[in-house]
Structures are given as C-alpha cells and as structure tokens.
Amino acid sequence: QVQLVESGGGLVQAGDSLSVSCVASGRTFSNYAMGWFCQAPGKEREFVASISRSGVSTYYADSVKGRFTISRDNAKNTVYLQMNSLKPEDTAVYYCAADLTGFDLGLMFPSRYDYWGQGTQVTVSS
Questions:
Q1: How far is CA 98 from CA 8, 66, 67, 89, 125, in A?
Q2: How far is CA 76 from CA 26, 55, 72, in A?
Q3: 92 or 107: whose pLDDT is higher?
Q4: Given pLDDT bands bounded at 50, 70 and 90, which one contains residue 27?
C-alpha cells in the first residue's frame, strides 16, 4: 500500500502562484510515476500533469502548459505542483496519484493509477 497526503492548497487571487505538495509513504516512492489531477464541482476528474519515476520526463495538460510545473524529490518522497498565473477556472480539488507500471500517455487517465490522496482545495478568486 502507498499512502498519499496532499497539502498546500488555499485561497488565492487570479494571477497569483501557489505550490501544492504530496508526500508518499508505505513503499519505495521512486518506483512510482506520479500524477496530479483536479476536480471541480460537478465535473469529472481531469488530468493536470505527470512525472516519471526519475523525474526526467514530464507531461502536461494543454490548459496548464507553461503555467504549472510538476517536480519530485525522491529523497523526500514528495511530488510538487507549482502553479503560476492562476486563473479562476483552475479552482478545484487537486489530487496526487501514484502508478507502478511506468511512464506513458496512459498516465492522463485516472483509471491508470493505483493510489490516490485525499485532495487539497485550491480556490482562485477573480
């Protein structure tokens, strides 16, 4: 089992920056590709970004490309999502997720992931 705990969400204004983190425990963190998803009220969970086990490879949704950066520190069992130039439409609960099978475009889909955190709320006011 892998336990994932997100933190760092909050209320910010449009144009601000915010960083959210996800700490993993239970198994070897570097064995997992990681992803961030978001879910707004009444909407399906959407892909935001993913990162390979080593952190060398990343992939982003078009809506966040150039504004968000995913990174990881395997020594700290932590994956980060740095969010810049936030927009009101970025308002959502942000979830991190872990996948054991590898890094490919399948990481865009929630069904691919083995473990999920409980989420952290990010609210962007206009």
A1: 18, 23, 22, 25, 30
A2: 13, 13, 8
A3: 92
A4: confident
